[in-house]
């Protein structure tokens, strides 16, 4: 077994389950794949905790506040193990103190509701990454879709303006779940690197949430990264499978390496965002990914980049 290697995960949906279960914190949640206790045990550098807005809820801001309160309680009650991070300086400080960093993010920008003032409010609440869309059209633009016409549609006028504001504020632009046309608009407009927080390679697994080879190259040219997603739909070759293997995740990583280079690959597990059976199903098993990458011919330097160096660079280039 390789020695434990600190890592940064760009996406988990653990807060969704915490709100649904009326939890006080996310320190020990046996029913979930992620909790702060296992992150600390795994010596994770950082976890991005996404606030995802379920389609059925009526008050996005109320839901956001509930999720943030749970994360805040966790940080307050277990401050010796986990701490908030809003920029690279916070991350480095937490690493030095031996603490896991918690970044607060949003999945689905619908709650911004077409308002720059709302976007600034989310920044002031501590949000440092926003996935522009989920699987429905919103104020930013159009989502990933099996409908080719929808996939070619891009950002709205507000979405284009919002990218510039996010760049200025220091909110990372996340194109996972966005349409192909929206991706191209972000690539054209963004002045700083952007990310696909939890997307794999479409040439390996033909799912519209994954990136084409052209998109991978563009993302790399812009200095961005894509996070290896562990969910079966985006990993495996057969449809309707609910088992995700390390071998296939590493096939995606190798493809990303060959197409976009070693600086474009990161981690975005999508833990707690799927009901699939995952071979890597919690932070304490992350070392299995690094063992798998080594078997695929990745050097230790390249594994370090996948684990944390690439996304640290992006955070340094984007967050204020």
Characterise the protein shown here:
- The structure is a single chain.
- The chain is of the alpha/beta class.
- The protein has one domain (about 10-320): Alpha-Beta Barrel (TIM Barrel).
- It contains 13 helices and 11 strands.
- The protein has helices at about 15-20, 35-40, 60-75, 90-95, 115-125, 150, 155-170, 180-190, 215-220, 230-235, 245-260, 285-295, 300-320, and strands at about 10, 45-50, 80-85, 100-105, 125-130, 170-175, 195, 225-230, 245, 265, 275-280.
- The strands form 3 sheets. Strands 1, 2, 3, 4, 5 and 6 form a 6-stranded parallel beta sheet that branches. It has a 3-stranded parallel beta sheet with strand order 7-8-10.
- Helix 1 (about 15-20) packs across helix 3 (about 60-75), helix 5 packs parallel to helix 7 and helix 11 crosses helix 12.
Mean pLDDT: 97
Shape: globular
Radius of gyration: 18 Å
Give the number of helices.
13
Count of extended strands:
11
Please describe the biggest sheet, giving its number of strands, its sense, and whether it closes into a barrel.
Answer: 6 strands, parallel
Q: Which architecture would the CATH scheme give at its second level?
A: Alpha-Beta Barrel
Helix content: 40-55%
Q: Which fold name is given in CATH as the topology?
A: TIM Barrel
- As a percent range, the share of strand residues is 5-15%
Structurally, how many domains make up the residues?
1
Q: What would you call the structural class?
A: alpha/beta
CATH class: Alpha Beta
Can you tell me the residue ranges where pLDDT is under 50 for at least 5 consecutive residues? none
- CATH homologous superfamily designation: Metal-dependent hydrolases
């Amino acid at each position: 077994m390789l020695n434990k290697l600190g890592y940064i995960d760009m996406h988990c949906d653990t807060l969704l389950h915490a709100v649904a279960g009326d939890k006080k914190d996310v320190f020990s949640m046996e029913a979930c794949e992620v909790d702060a206790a296992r992150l600390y045990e795994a010596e994770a550098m950082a976890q991005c905790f996404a606030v995802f807005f379920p389609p059925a809820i009526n008050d996005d801001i109320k839901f956001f506040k509930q999720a943030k309160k749970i994360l805040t309680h966790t940080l307050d009650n277990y401050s010796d193990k986990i701490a908030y991070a809003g920029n690279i300086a916070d991350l480095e400080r937490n690493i030095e103190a031996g603490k896991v960093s918690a970044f607060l993010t949003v999945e689905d920008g619908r709650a911004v509701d077409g308002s720059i003032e709302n976007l600034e409010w989310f920044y002031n609440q501590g949000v440092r990454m926003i996935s522009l869309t989920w699987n429905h059209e919103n104020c930013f633009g159009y989502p990933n879709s099996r409908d080719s016409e929808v996939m070619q549609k891009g950002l709205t006028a507000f979405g284009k303006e919002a990218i510039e504001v996010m760049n200025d504020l220091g909110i990372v632009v996340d194109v996972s779940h966005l349409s192909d046309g929206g991706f191209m608009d972000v690539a054209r407009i963004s002045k700083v690197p952007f990310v696909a927080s939890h997307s794999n390679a479409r040439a390996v697994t033909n799912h519209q949430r994954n990136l084409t080879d052209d998109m991978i190259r563009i993302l790399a040219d812009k200095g961005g990264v894509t996070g290896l997603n562990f969910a079966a739909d985006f990993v495996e070759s057969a449809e309707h499978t609910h088992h995700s293997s390390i071998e296939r995740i590493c096939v995606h990583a190798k493809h990303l390496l060959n197409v976009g280079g070693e600086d474009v690959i990161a981690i975005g597990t999508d833990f707690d965002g799927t009901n699939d059976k995952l071979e890597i199903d919690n932070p304490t098993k992350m070392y299995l990914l690094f063992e798998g990458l080594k078997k695929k011919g990745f050097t230790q330097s390249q594994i370090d980049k996948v684990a944390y160096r690439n996304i640290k660079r992006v955070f340094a280039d984007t967050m204020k």
